[in-house]
Amino acid sequence: MMRIVAMAIASIAGLVMLLSPFFPDLESVGAQSSEIFNVIAAIAFILGAGSLVKVNLSRIGRRDAGWGYALVTLLCFAITLIVGLGKIGVPPNPQFAATPWAGEKDAAGSAFAWIYEFVLTPITSTMFALLAFYVASAAFRAFRAKNREAMLLLGTAFIVLLGRTFAGVWLTGGLPEWASGLRLENLSMFIMQVFNTAGNRAIIIGIALGVTATSLRILLGIDRSWMGAGGGSA
Amino acid sequence: MVSAEDAAAAGATTASLFTPGKLPLAVAIIVTSGCIIAWMLQARAGAAMYLRRIPALDAVTNAVGRSTEMGRPVLFIAGIQDMDNIQTVAGITVLSHVAKTTAEYDATIEVPTSRSLVMEAAREAVRGSYQAAGRFDAYNADAIRYITDEQFGFVASVSGQMVREKPAACFYMGCFFAESLILAETGNSIGAIQIAGTAESSQLPFFVAACDYTLIGEEFMAASAYLSGAPDQIGSLKGQDAAKVIVATLILLGVVLATIAALNVPQSEAVSRVLESVKGALGS
Questions:
Q1: Considering the domain boundaries, does residue A104 fall inside one?
Q2: Which residues in chain A (122-141) have CB-CB distances under 8 A to chain B?
Q3: Tag placement on chain A: N or C end, fewer CB within 10 Å?
Protein backbone atom coordinates (compact mmCIF):
# COMPACT_ATOMS: atom_id res chain seq x y z
CA MET A 1 0.00 0.00 0.00
CA MET A 2 2.81 2.41 0.95
CA ARG A 3 4.48 1.70 -2.38
CA ILE A 4 1.30 2.52 -4.30
CA VAL A 5 0.91 5.80 -2.41
CA ALA A 6 4.57 6.72 -3.02
CA MET A 7 4.23 5.88 -6.71
CA ALA A 8 1.01 7.88 -7.03
CA ILE A 9 2.59 10.94 -5.38
CA ALA A 10 5.65 10.67 -7.64
CA SER A 11 3.51 10.30 -10.77
CA ILE A 12 1.12 13.15 -9.97
CA ALA A 13 3.88 15.55 -8.85
CA GLY A 14 5.98 14.62 -11.91
CA LEU A 15 3.07 15.13 -14.28
CA VAL A 16 2.25 18.54 -12.77
CA MET A 17 5.90 19.62 -13.07
CA LEU A 18 5.94 18.40 -16.68
CA LEU A 19 2.78 20.28 -17.66
CA SER A 20 3.33 23.48 -15.66
CA PRO A 21 5.64 25.20 -18.20
CA PHE A 22 3.00 24.72 -20.92
CA PHE A 23 -0.15 25.74 -19.06
CA PRO A 24 -0.03 29.11 -17.26
CA ASP A 25 -2.78 27.95 -14.89
CA LEU A 26 -0.52 25.16 -13.62
CA GLU A 27 2.54 27.36 -13.09
CA SER A 28 1.59 28.14 -9.49
CA VAL A 29 0.96 24.44 -8.79
CA GLY A 30 4.40 23.61 -10.19
CA ALA A 31 5.99 26.27 -7.99
CA GLN A 32 4.11 24.89 -4.99
CA SER A 33 5.43 21.39 -5.72
CA SER A 34 8.98 22.79 -5.62
CA GLU A 35 8.22 24.44 -2.26
CA ILE A 36 6.85 21.17 -0.89
CA PHE A 37 10.07 19.48 -2.01
CA ASN A 38 12.11 22.10 -0.11
CA VAL A 39 10.05 21.53 3.05
CA ILE A 40 10.53 17.75 2.81
CA ALA A 41 14.27 18.23 2.20
CA ALA A 42 14.48 20.46 5.30
CA ILE A 43 12.73 17.78 7.41
CA ALA A 44 15.03 15.13 5.96
CA PHE A 45 18.00 17.21 7.07
CA ILE A 46 17.14 16.37 10.69
CA LEU A 47 17.39 12.69 9.75
CA GLY A 48 20.70 13.39 8.01
CA ALA A 49 22.15 15.13 11.03
CA GLY A 50 20.91 12.27 13.22
CA SER A 51 22.65 9.77 10.94
CA LEU A 52 25.87 11.81 11.03
CA VAL A 53 25.92 11.87 14.83
CA LYS A 54 24.93 8.20 15.22
CA VAL A 55 27.45 6.83 12.72
CA ASN A 56 30.35 8.91 14.04
CA LEU A 57 29.55 8.16 17.70
CA SER A 58 29.51 4.43 16.98
CA ARG A 59 32.84 4.72 15.11
CA ILE A 60 34.38 6.41 18.14
CA GLY A 61 32.82 3.81 20.45
CA ARG A 62 34.22 0.90 18.41
CA ARG A 63 37.59 2.65 17.93
CA ASP A 64 37.34 1.99 14.17
CA ALA A 65 40.18 2.96 11.86
CA GLY A 66 40.19 6.77 11.65
CA TRP A 67 37.98 7.24 14.72
CA GLY A 68 39.88 10.43 15.48
CA TYR A 69 38.44 11.98 12.32
CA ALA A 70 34.96 11.04 13.55
CA LEU A 71 35.70 12.89 16.78
CA VAL A 72 36.86 15.98 14.86
CA THR A 73 33.71 15.79 12.70
CA LEU A 74 31.42 15.68 15.72
CA LEU A 75 33.28 18.49 17.49
CA CYS A 76 33.12 20.72 14.40
CA PHE A 77 29.45 19.85 13.89
CA ALA A 78 28.63 20.75 17.50
CA ILE A 79 30.64 23.98 17.50
CA THR A 80 29.12 25.20 14.20
CA LEU A 81 25.61 24.25 15.35
CA ILE A 82 25.98 26.10 18.67
CA VAL A 83 27.58 29.14 17.02
CA GLY A 84 24.88 29.26 14.33
CA LEU A 85 21.83 28.62 16.51
CA GLY A 86 23.15 30.78 19.35
CA LYS A 87 24.02 33.59 16.91
CA ILE A 88 27.26 34.15 18.82
CA GLY A 89 28.87 37.50 18.07
CA VAL A 90 26.05 38.55 15.75
CA PRO A 91 25.82 42.37 15.60
CA PRO A 92 22.36 43.70 16.52
CA ASN A 93 19.87 44.34 13.75
CA PRO A 94 19.43 48.16 13.45
CA GLN A 95 15.77 47.65 12.50
CA PHE A 96 15.04 45.73 15.73
CA ALA A 97 17.70 47.11 18.05
CA ALA A 98 15.76 46.19 21.21
CA THR A 99 15.24 42.57 20.18
CA PRO A 100 18.08 40.21 21.05
CA TRP A 101 19.15 37.71 18.36
CA ALA A 102 17.45 39.73 15.61
CA GLY A 103 20.65 39.96 13.55
CA GLU A 104 21.48 37.59 10.70
CA LYS A 105 23.52 34.56 11.82
CA ASP A 106 26.04 35.07 8.99
CA ALA A 107 26.27 38.87 9.23
CA ALA A 108 29.77 40.34 8.92
CA GLY A 109 31.56 40.15 12.26
CA SER A 110 29.61 37.15 13.58
CA ALA A 111 31.39 33.99 14.72
CA PHE A 112 29.50 31.99 12.07
CA ALA A 113 30.77 34.27 9.30
CA TRP A 114 34.28 33.99 10.77
CA ILE A 115 34.11 30.17 10.67
CA TYR A 116 32.85 30.30 7.08
CA GLU A 117 35.50 32.74 5.89
CA PHE A 118 38.56 31.58 7.79
CA VAL A 119 37.94 27.83 8.26
CA LEU A 120 35.55 26.46 5.63
CA THR A 121 36.65 28.53 2.63
CA PRO A 122 40.41 27.75 3.00
CA ILE A 123 39.69 24.04 3.54
CA THR A 124 37.44 23.76 0.47
CA SER A 125 39.92 25.80 -1.60
CA THR A 126 42.65 23.37 -0.57
CA MET A 127 40.58 20.39 -1.72
CA PHE A 128 39.81 22.15 -5.00
CA ALA A 129 43.50 22.96 -5.51
CA LEU A 130 44.33 19.24 -5.26
CA LEU A 131 42.41 18.82 -8.49
CA ALA A 132 45.36 20.17 -10.49
CA PHE A 133 47.53 17.22 -9.39
CA TYR A 134 44.75 14.72 -10.06
CA VAL A 135 44.29 16.17 -13.57
CA ALA A 136 48.03 15.77 -14.20
CA SER A 137 48.09 12.12 -13.08
CA ALA A 138 44.91 11.25 -15.02
CA ALA A 139 46.21 13.02 -18.14
CA PHE A 140 49.50 11.13 -17.86
CA ARG A 141 47.62 7.80 -17.97
CA ALA A 142 45.06 8.84 -20.58
CA PHE A 143 47.61 10.27 -23.02
CA ARG A 144 49.93 7.28 -22.99
CA ALA A 145 50.44 6.44 -26.68
CA LYS A 146 49.63 2.73 -26.42
CA ASN A 147 47.52 2.37 -29.60
CA ARG A 148 46.36 4.32 -32.64
CA GLU A 149 43.35 5.92 -30.90
CA ALA A 150 45.47 6.96 -27.91
CA MET A 151 48.03 8.52 -30.26
CA LEU A 152 45.26 10.46 -32.00
CA LEU A 153 44.03 11.66 -28.60
CA LEU A 154 47.55 12.63 -27.57
CA GLY A 155 48.13 14.58 -30.80
CA THR A 156 44.81 16.42 -30.51
CA ALA A 157 45.43 17.24 -26.85
CA PHE A 158 48.92 18.51 -27.73
CA ILE A 159 47.53 20.87 -30.39
CA VAL A 160 44.73 22.18 -28.11
CA LEU A 161 47.11 22.61 -25.17
CA LEU A 162 49.74 24.47 -27.19
CA GLY A 163 47.12 26.48 -29.09
CA ARG A 164 45.76 27.91 -25.86
CA THR A 165 49.12 29.10 -24.56
CA PHE A 166 51.62 31.66 -25.78
CA ALA A 167 53.86 28.79 -26.91
CA GLY A 168 51.44 28.07 -29.77
CA VAL A 169 51.53 31.66 -31.02
CA TRP A 170 55.30 31.73 -30.65
CA LEU A 171 55.84 28.43 -32.51
CA THR A 172 53.56 28.97 -35.52
CA GLY A 173 52.98 32.73 -35.53
CA GLY A 174 55.46 33.06 -38.40
CA LEU A 175 53.35 31.04 -40.86
CA PRO A 176 52.28 33.08 -43.92
CA GLU A 177 48.71 34.40 -44.23
CA TRP A 178 47.65 31.74 -46.76
CA ALA A 179 48.59 29.02 -44.21
CA SER A 180 47.08 30.80 -41.20
CA GLY A 181 44.63 27.91 -40.72
CA LEU A 182 47.61 25.80 -39.64
CA ARG A 183 48.59 28.15 -36.83
CA LEU A 184 48.20 26.28 -33.53
CA GLU A 185 45.77 28.80 -32.02
CA ASN A 186 43.52 28.50 -35.12
CA LEU A 187 43.82 24.71 -35.24
CA SER A 188 42.93 24.57 -31.53
CA MET A 189 39.87 26.76 -32.12
CA PHE A 190 38.83 24.62 -35.12
CA ILE A 191 39.08 21.40 -33.07
CA MET A 192 37.07 22.88 -30.20
CA GLN A 193 34.39 24.50 -32.37
CA VAL A 194 33.87 21.69 -34.88
CA PHE A 195 34.87 18.25 -33.53
CA ASN A 196 34.35 18.96 -29.84
CA THR A 197 31.04 20.79 -30.30
CA ALA A 198 29.70 18.11 -32.65
CA GLY A 199 30.57 15.30 -30.23
CA ASN A 200 29.21 17.22 -27.26
CA ARG A 201 25.93 17.98 -29.00
CA ALA A 202 25.50 14.31 -29.95
CA ILE A 203 25.95 13.36 -26.29
CA ILE A 204 23.53 16.08 -25.15
CA ILE A 205 20.82 14.97 -27.62
CA GLY A 206 21.23 11.38 -26.35
CA ILE A 207 21.00 12.59 -22.75
CA ALA A 208 17.83 14.60 -23.47
CA LEU A 209 16.16 11.55 -25.01
CA GLY A 210 17.42 9.37 -22.15
CA VAL A 211 15.99 11.80 -19.58
CA THR A 212 12.62 11.71 -21.38
CA ALA A 213 12.56 7.90 -21.43
CA THR A 214 13.66 7.60 -17.77
CA SER A 215 11.08 10.18 -16.65
CA LEU A 216 8.33 8.40 -18.59
CA ARG A 217 9.25 5.02 -17.10
CA ILE A 218 9.07 6.49 -13.59
CA LEU A 219 5.92 8.57 -14.20
CA LEU A 220 4.08 5.59 -15.68
CA GLY A 221 5.24 3.37 -12.81
CA ILE A 222 7.05 1.00 -15.18
CA ASP A 223 10.42 1.49 -13.47
CA ARG A 224 9.91 1.21 -9.72
CA SER A 225 13.47 0.35 -8.81
CA TRP A 226 13.88 3.78 -7.13
CA MET A 227 11.67 2.28 -4.40
CA GLY A 228 13.91 -0.75 -4.12
CA ALA A 229 13.20 -4.40 -4.90
CA GLY A 230 16.03 -4.46 -7.42
CA GLY A 231 14.28 -3.54 -10.59
CA GLY A 232 10.64 -3.97 -9.85
CA SER A 233 8.76 -3.52 -13.05
CA ALA A 234 5.09 -3.15 -13.88
CA MET B 1 -23.52 36.81 -34.88
CA VAL B 2 -20.23 36.87 -33.02
CA SER B 3 -18.90 40.36 -32.50
CA ALA B 4 -15.25 41.31 -32.93
CA GLU B 5 -14.99 41.91 -29.16
CA ASP B 6 -16.35 38.41 -28.40
CA ALA B 7 -13.88 36.88 -30.83
CA ALA B 8 -11.02 38.84 -29.27
CA ALA B 9 -12.12 37.76 -25.77
CA ALA B 10 -12.33 34.12 -26.89
CA GLY B 11 -8.85 34.43 -28.40
CA ALA B 12 -7.50 35.86 -25.18
CA THR B 13 -9.05 32.98 -23.18
CA THR B 14 -7.54 30.41 -25.58
CA ALA B 15 -4.17 32.16 -25.42
CA SER B 16 -4.13 32.03 -21.62
CA LEU B 17 -4.80 28.28 -21.58
CA PHE B 18 -1.55 27.36 -23.31
CA THR B 19 1.80 29.15 -23.53
CA PRO B 20 2.11 29.66 -27.34
CA GLY B 21 5.91 30.03 -27.38
CA LYS B 22 6.27 26.53 -25.94
CA LEU B 23 4.38 24.80 -28.77
CA PRO B 24 7.51 23.38 -30.55
CA LEU B 25 8.79 21.99 -27.24
CA ALA B 26 5.38 20.43 -26.51
CA VAL B 27 5.34 18.82 -29.98
CA ALA B 28 8.89 17.46 -29.44
CA ILE B 29 7.90 15.95 -26.07
CA ILE B 30 4.70 14.44 -27.48
CA VAL B 31 6.52 12.88 -30.47
CA THR B 32 9.37 11.52 -28.28
CA SER B 33 6.98 10.20 -25.63
CA GLY B 34 4.76 8.71 -28.35
CA CYS B 35 7.72 6.79 -29.82
CA ILE B 36 8.75 5.49 -26.39
CA ILE B 37 5.21 4.42 -25.39
CA ALA B 38 4.59 2.78 -28.80
CA TRP B 39 7.75 0.66 -28.49
CA MET B 40 6.94 -0.18 -24.85
CA LEU B 41 3.55 -1.51 -25.95
CA GLN B 42 5.17 -3.50 -28.78
CA ALA B 43 7.65 -5.04 -26.36
CA ARG B 44 4.86 -5.87 -23.93
CA ALA B 45 3.00 -7.57 -26.78
CA GLY B 46 6.01 -9.85 -27.24
CA ALA B 47 7.94 -8.24 -30.12
CA ALA B 48 11.59 -9.31 -30.22
CA MET B 49 13.97 -6.53 -29.16
CA TYR B 50 17.72 -6.51 -29.79
CA LEU B 51 19.75 -4.66 -27.20
CA ARG B 52 23.49 -4.17 -27.65
CA ARG B 53 25.67 -5.22 -24.74
CA ILE B 54 26.88 -2.47 -22.43
CA PRO B 55 30.21 -3.69 -20.95
CA ALA B 56 30.00 -1.30 -17.99
CA LEU B 57 26.73 -2.85 -16.84
CA ASP B 58 27.86 -6.40 -17.56
CA ALA B 59 30.82 -5.68 -15.26
CA VAL B 60 28.58 -4.90 -12.25
CA THR B 61 28.31 -8.57 -11.25
CA ASN B 62 32.07 -9.10 -11.66
CA ALA B 63 32.83 -6.04 -9.56
CA VAL B 64 30.54 -7.15 -6.73
CA GLY B 65 31.89 -10.72 -6.97
CA ARG B 66 35.43 -9.37 -6.67
CA SER B 67 34.44 -7.45 -3.53
CA THR B 68 33.03 -10.62 -1.99
CA GLU B 69 36.19 -12.59 -2.79
CA MET B 70 38.45 -9.91 -1.37
CA GLY B 71 36.26 -9.35 1.70
CA ARG B 72 36.10 -5.64 1.00
CA PRO B 73 33.06 -3.37 0.68
CA VAL B 74 31.39 -1.99 -2.43
CA LEU B 75 31.21 1.82 -2.50
CA PHE B 76 28.28 3.49 -4.27
CA ILE B 77 27.97 7.26 -4.71
CA ALA B 78 24.75 8.62 -6.24
CA GLY B 79 26.22 12.03 -7.12
CA ILE B 80 26.11 15.20 -5.07
CA GLN B 81 22.72 16.60 -6.08
CA ASP B 82 19.30 16.20 -4.46
CA MET B 83 16.35 14.03 -5.46
CA ASP B 84 14.95 16.79 -7.72
CA ASN B 85 17.74 15.99 -10.18
CA ILE B 86 16.88 13.20 -12.65
CA GLN B 87 20.49 11.96 -12.56
CA THR B 88 20.19 11.30 -8.83
CA VAL B 89 16.95 9.38 -9.42
CA ALA B 90 18.70 7.37 -12.17
CA GLY B 91 21.61 6.74 -9.77
CA ILE B 92 19.20 5.43 -7.10
CA THR B 93 17.58 3.07 -9.63
CA VAL B 94 21.03 1.65 -10.46
CA LEU B 95 21.81 1.43 -6.72
CA SER B 96 18.79 -0.79 -6.24
CA HIS B 97 20.19 -3.28 -8.80
CA VAL B 98 23.71 -3.13 -7.38
CA ALA B 99 22.34 -3.61 -3.84
CA LYS B 100 20.39 -6.66 -4.96
CA THR B 101 23.61 -8.13 -6.36
CA THR B 102 25.54 -7.35 -3.15
CA ALA B 103 22.76 -9.01 -1.14
CA GLU B 104 22.92 -12.12 -3.33
CA TYR B 105 26.74 -12.25 -3.20
CA ASP B 106 26.89 -11.48 0.53
CA ALA B 107 29.04 -8.39 -0.02
CA THR B 108 28.74 -5.22 2.03
CA ILE B 109 27.68 -1.97 0.42
CA GLU B 110 28.58 1.52 1.62
CA VAL B 111 26.55 4.49 0.37
CA PRO B 112 27.78 7.89 1.57
CA THR B 113 25.40 10.66 0.48
CA SER B 114 25.67 14.42 0.30
CA ARG B 115 21.94 15.10 0.75
CA SER B 116 19.66 13.91 3.54
CA LEU B 117 16.79 13.18 1.17
CA VAL B 118 19.07 11.08 -1.04
CA MET B 119 20.11 9.14 2.08
CA GLU B 120 16.45 8.34 2.82
CA ALA B 121 15.73 7.38 -0.80
CA ALA B 122 18.89 5.22 -0.94
CA ARG B 123 17.91 3.48 2.32
CA GLU B 124 14.48 2.67 0.88
CA ALA B 125 16.01 1.35 -2.35
CA VAL B 126 18.65 -0.79 -0.60
CA ARG B 127 16.17 -2.09 2.00
CA GLY B 128 13.77 -3.10 -0.80
CA SER B 129 16.56 -4.82 -2.72
CA TYR B 130 17.75 -6.79 0.32
CA GLN B 131 14.15 -7.80 0.99
CA ALA B 132 13.70 -8.89 -2.63
CA ALA B 133 16.90 -10.94 -2.42
CA GLY B 134 15.67 -12.61 0.80
CA ARG B 135 18.61 -11.19 2.78
CA PHE B 136 16.89 -8.57 4.92
CA ASP B 137 18.97 -9.75 7.92
CA ALA B 138 22.10 -8.44 6.15
CA TYR B 139 20.65 -4.95 5.59
CA ASN B 140 22.53 -2.26 7.54
CA ALA B 141 20.87 1.17 7.49
CA ASP B 142 23.99 2.84 8.96
CA ALA B 143 25.99 1.89 5.85
CA ILE B 144 23.88 4.44 3.96
CA ARG B 145 24.75 7.66 5.69
CA TYR B 146 24.71 11.40 5.28
CA ILE B 147 28.07 13.21 5.20
CA THR B 148 27.56 16.87 4.27
CA ASP B 149 25.98 19.07 1.60
CA GLU B 150 29.33 20.80 1.14
CA GLN B 151 30.89 19.58 -2.15
CA PHE B 152 34.53 19.37 -1.09
CA GLY B 153 33.72 18.36 2.48
CA PHE B 154 31.91 15.36 1.01
CA VAL B 155 34.85 14.54 -1.27
CA ALA B 156 37.34 14.79 1.61
CA SER B 157 35.27 12.43 3.76
CA VAL B 158 34.67 9.87 0.99
CA SER B 159 38.30 9.96 -0.21
CA GLY B 160 39.46 9.34 3.37
CA GLN B 161 37.05 6.44 3.68
CA MET B 162 38.30 5.00 0.38
CA VAL B 163 41.94 5.17 1.48
CA ARG B 164 41.19 3.61 4.90
CA GLU B 165 38.71 0.88 3.90
CA LYS B 166 39.99 0.21 0.35
CA PRO B 167 36.68 -0.82 -1.29
CA ALA B 168 37.16 -3.38 -4.06
CA ALA B 169 34.53 -1.79 -6.31
CA CYS B 170 33.48 1.84 -6.63
CA PHE B 171 30.34 3.00 -8.41
CA TYR B 172 29.83 6.67 -9.26
CA MET B 173 26.32 7.05 -10.68
CA GLY B 174 24.71 10.46 -10.70
CA CYS B 175 25.42 14.13 -11.09
CA PHE B 176 29.04 15.06 -10.43
CA PHE B 177 31.07 18.22 -10.84
CA ALA B 178 34.69 19.01 -9.95
CA GLU B 179 34.79 16.19 -7.39
CA SER B 180 34.48 13.53 -10.09
CA LEU B 181 38.21 13.33 -10.80
CA ILE B 182 39.26 13.48 -7.13
CA LEU B 183 36.99 10.52 -6.35
CA ALA B 184 37.93 8.53 -9.45
CA GLU B 185 41.68 9.09 -9.04
CA THR B 186 41.52 8.09 -5.36
CA GLY B 187 39.64 4.94 -6.38
CA ASN B 188 42.25 4.28 -9.05
CA SER B 189 45.09 4.66 -6.53
CA ILE B 190 43.61 1.96 -4.25
CA GLY B 191 43.16 -0.45 -7.17
CA ALA B 192 39.36 -0.64 -7.09
CA ILE B 193 37.25 -1.64 -10.10
CA GLN B 194 35.50 1.59 -10.98
CA ILE B 195 32.25 2.00 -12.89
CA ALA B 196 30.96 5.50 -13.47
CA GLY B 197 27.88 6.97 -15.10
CA THR B 198 26.85 10.57 -15.50
CA ALA B 199 24.99 12.88 -17.83
CA GLU B 200 27.32 15.79 -17.03
CA SER B 201 29.19 15.97 -20.33
CA SER B 202 31.95 18.14 -18.81
CA GLN B 203 32.81 15.38 -16.29
CA LEU B 204 32.75 12.46 -18.74
CA PRO B 205 36.39 12.85 -19.87
CA PHE B 206 37.57 12.63 -16.25
CA PHE B 207 35.61 9.45 -15.61
CA VAL B 208 36.78 7.96 -18.92
CA ALA B 209 40.41 8.69 -17.98
CA ALA B 210 40.26 7.36 -14.42
CA CYS B 211 37.60 4.60 -14.37
CA ASP B 212 37.54 1.10 -15.83
CA TYR B 213 34.07 1.54 -17.31
CA THR B 214 32.01 4.66 -17.99
CA LEU B 215 28.35 4.96 -18.90
CA ILE B 216 28.18 7.93 -21.23
CA GLY B 217 25.05 10.09 -20.96
CA GLU B 218 22.16 8.11 -22.36
CA GLU B 219 23.78 4.78 -21.40
CA PHE B 220 23.57 5.92 -17.79
CA MET B 221 19.89 6.78 -18.21
CA ALA B 222 19.33 3.37 -19.82
CA ALA B 223 21.18 1.47 -17.07
CA SER B 224 18.16 0.66 -14.91
CA ALA B 225 16.14 -0.62 -17.89
CA TYR B 226 19.12 -2.65 -19.13
CA LEU B 227 19.76 -4.25 -15.73
CA SER B 228 16.07 -5.04 -15.13
CA GLY B 229 15.75 -6.88 -18.46
CA ALA B 230 11.97 -6.27 -18.31
CA PRO B 231 10.49 -6.24 -21.84
CA ASP B 232 8.59 -2.96 -21.51
CA GLN B 233 11.66 -1.21 -20.11
CA ILE B 234 13.78 -2.55 -22.98
CA GLY B 235 11.00 -1.34 -25.31
CA SER B 236 11.42 2.17 -23.92
CA LEU B 237 15.07 2.07 -24.99
CA LYS B 238 14.06 1.08 -28.52
CA GLY B 239 11.54 3.94 -28.54
CA GLN B 240 14.34 6.26 -27.49
CA ASP B 241 16.37 5.03 -30.48
CA ALA B 242 13.41 5.65 -32.80
CA ALA B 243 13.20 9.24 -31.50
CA LYS B 244 16.93 9.56 -32.11
CA VAL B 245 16.43 8.54 -35.76
CA ILE B 246 13.79 11.29 -36.10
CA VAL B 247 16.17 13.86 -34.57
CA ALA B 248 19.02 12.74 -36.86
CA THR B 249 16.73 12.98 -39.92
CA LEU B 250 15.69 16.52 -38.93
CA ILE B 251 19.34 17.52 -38.44
CA LEU B 252 20.26 16.13 -41.89
CA LEU B 253 17.29 17.93 -43.45
CA GLY B 254 18.39 21.15 -41.74
CA VAL B 255 21.94 20.74 -43.02
CA VAL B 256 20.73 20.16 -46.62
CA LEU B 257 18.38 23.18 -46.49
CA ALA B 258 21.03 25.43 -44.92
CA THR B 259 23.50 24.35 -47.62
CA ILE B 260 21.00 25.11 -50.40
CA ALA B 261 20.27 28.50 -48.79
CA ALA B 262 23.98 29.29 -48.67
CA LEU B 263 24.57 28.32 -52.32
CA ASN B 264 23.77 30.83 -55.01
CA VAL B 265 21.09 28.79 -56.80
CA PRO B 266 17.57 29.93 -57.86
CA GLN B 267 15.94 28.01 -54.95
CA SER B 268 18.17 29.63 -52.30
CA GLU B 269 15.88 32.55 -51.53
CA ALA B 270 12.77 30.37 -51.07
CA VAL B 271 14.70 27.92 -48.85
CA SER B 272 16.08 30.83 -46.80
CA ARG B 273 12.53 32.07 -46.20
CA VAL B 274 11.45 28.57 -45.05
CA LEU B 275 14.44 28.32 -42.70
CA GLU B 276 13.75 31.77 -41.25
CA SER B 277 10.11 30.89 -40.59
CA VAL B 278 11.17 27.61 -38.89
CA LYS B 279 13.69 29.53 -36.76
CA GLY B 280 10.97 32.04 -35.87
CA ALA B 281 8.59 29.23 -34.86
CA LEU B 282 11.29 27.70 -32.66
CA GLY B 283 11.87 31.08 -31.08
CA SER B 284 15.57 31.31 -31.91
A1: no
A2: 123-124, 127-128, 130-131, 134-135, 137-139, 141
A3: N
pLDDT tens for residues B170-203?
999 999 999 999 999 999 999 999 999 999 999 9
- ipTM surpasses 0.90: no
The number of domains in chain A is 2
Q: Kindly determine whether residue A211 and residue B121, on different chains, have CB atoms separated by under 8 Å.
A: no
Nearest residue of A to residue B161 by CA position? A66
pLDDT 10s digits, B67-104:
999 999 999 999 999 998 999 999 999 999 999 999 99
Computed over every residue of chain A, the mean pLDDT equals 89
Which of B82, B199, B228 is the closest to A41 by Cβ?
B82
Q: Which residues of A touch B34 (CB under 8 A)?
A: none
Domain closes at, from A21, A42, A65 = A65
Q: Which B residues 42-81 touch A at CB under 8 Å?
A: none
Among the partner-chain residues B16, B17, B86, the one whose CB lies closest to the CB of A215 is B86
Selection from B263, B222, B188, B186 nearest residue B36 by Cα: B222
Task: State the pLDDT at residue B4.
Answer: 52
CB atoms A216 and B37 under 8 Å: yes
Other Cβ atoms closer than 10 A to B190: 17
The answer to whether position A101 is within a domain reads: no
C-alpha dist (Å) from residue B244 to A206, A215, B215, B219: 7, 17, 18, 14
Identify the domain containing residue A59 by its residue range: 1-65
Of the ranges A38-42, A182-186, B23-27, B275-279, which is most confident?
Answer: A182-186
User: Which residue segments constitute the domains of chain B, with CATH numbers given?
Assistant: 55-228 (3.40.50)
* A94 part of a folded domain: no
